[in-house]
Amino acid sequence: MQHIKPLAALLMAYFILIIWRDIYAFSCVILIIPMIVMSIMMIGLFQFAAKKRWCLATCYFQPSSLLYQIFTGKIFVFIRAILTALFLTVVLLVQMVLWEWKILVILLMNLFLLYGLYHFILSSLKLSIHPQMRFVIAKNWTVSINLLMMIFVLAGVQYYSFIPDYLDPSLAKTLNNATVHLVSECDMVRYLLQMGAEKDAFSWWLMVTGNEWISDQVISGIVWTLFLLSGGVAVWGYNRYLIEVADLFLVKEENSEITSHHNH
């Protein structure tokens, strides 16, 4: 029963991304979705960085020292969290439009794996990590472990998938074919989607058509690796987004349990 609310919230967060995939062509009012996703990511990124710096400051420096003030200062951490969240949000939402449905189904199944892994790590750290840091550490371990797993899954799916229909011996025609269907009334959205589509199309063109003049297997491998890393960054953003949603409910449950225990 305790898992119903977090899982329902995760499913809702997932379907917000699916809704974005269906309505990105509308006016710039739809930018409210990226703003929501970015805000959720930013909270977790800021929380992790701020607590880590606070731990270092209290461990090594006197409270009256300049270094203590620098490490516990939150302005730089806040700015970095905003920029990182913005980058992850853009990459994630662009890929949500470009990914095939089979990858989206895999991401849906991964949602349950992510939650189970987070709950397992959280429970494992209960007796060894201070409560203030336990949720932060569990979130970051979960995101990292799941990301490594999903990169291999994405690599397999992409490697054995069909070659995109938009590929053509001509690079210019390939890029045009890949972006011609990406239209949006919001210029910013259209520009970002076309950039993402052109990046993927160029990578596919190099790996398939460009093999005639890329004889070096190392260069071909680098192109393939960069292509997968792009998807990996999107999965990183996806994991970070979902883990923060799950954390909202698990932290509340933890606090209520602690309060109930103290009352007894």
UniProtKB/TrEMBL annotation:
Transmembrane segments: 7-23, 29-50, 71-97, 103-122, 143-163, 218-238
Keywords tagged on the record: Membrane, Transmembrane, Transmembrane helix
UniProt superkingdom: Bacteria
This protein's name: Uncharacterized protein
Organism for this UniProt entry: Thioflexithrix psekupsensis
